[in-house]
Design brief:
The protein is of the alpha+beta class and 187 residues long. The chain has two domains: 143 residues, DNA methylase specificity domains (Adenine-n6-DNA-methyltransferase TaqI, Chain A, domain 2, Alpha-Beta Complex); 42 residues, no CATH class. 34% of the residues lie in helices and 22% in strands. It has six helices and eleven strands. Strands 2-10-7-8 form a four-stranded antiparallel sheet. Strands 6-3-9 form a three-stranded mixed sheet. The chain is globular, with a radius of gyration of 19 Å. The termini are far apart.
């Protein structure tokens, strides 16, 4: 069934136009540069104090499991939040699927897919730095299977991702050893 994205989402948090006062420590804030290859690099985050967090996050708080999408510089990087004690910067949307309509993990895989990326790019604007406005993102049309099928598809994709992670770790470990089985000396 076809849905406009805005009709399939319970929440869209957008902190465009807001910049918090940075701190040397405190609560991490996810910016577009923190989201790469489907993951969040928390070491790239900047920080805001607890007091600033309460003043800054007036549009709502991200939840564990929400999907984070970069809206520009670059457009279309996506990841899933694995914690709640975070802030979200400009150029990043926080998305939460509507219960019974859109599974967050399905949304993640869809936005990472070629079809999802093409949909985003079809609505981008700008010359020097291209991006998508929230109003244009809301209009995207997405074909959603029933929630039970979304969950089954996600289960398979998660298993494949786990297998890829395991193979990557195995390859990394094998690369540390030469063919005689001895660990290579670090130089």
């Amino acid at each position: 069934m076809k849905y406009k994205v805005e009709d399939a989402l319970e929440k869209i948090l957008d902190y465009r136009g807001k910049t918090p006062k940075k701190s040397n420590n405190g609560i991490p804030v996810i910016s577009a540069k923190c989201i790469k290859n489907g993951r969040i690099d928390y070491s790239s985050c900047y920080f805001i104090s607890s007091g600033e967090y309460g003043k800054f996050m007036t549009r709502g708080f991200p939840r564990k499991g929400d999907i984070i999408l970069t809206t520009e510089a670059p457009l279309g990087n996506v990841a899933k939040l694995n914690r709640e004690d975070i802030g979200v910067a400009q150029r990043v949307l926080t998305l939460r699927g509507k219960a019974g309509v859109l599974d967050n993990d399905y949304l993640l895989y869809f936005l990472k897919s070629g079809e999802g990326q093409n949909l985003l790019k079809s609505r981008e604007s700008g010359t020097t730095v291209t991006g998508i406005k929230q109003s244009e993102f809301r209009k995207l049309e997405i074909d959603l299977p029933p929630i039970s099928i979304q969950k089954r598809m996600v289960k398979i994709l998660l298993l494949l991702d786990q297998k890829i992670d395991i193979n990557t770790r195995i390859n990394k470990n094998l690369a540390e050893f030469n063919f005689t089985g001895e660990k290579l000396r670090e130089q």
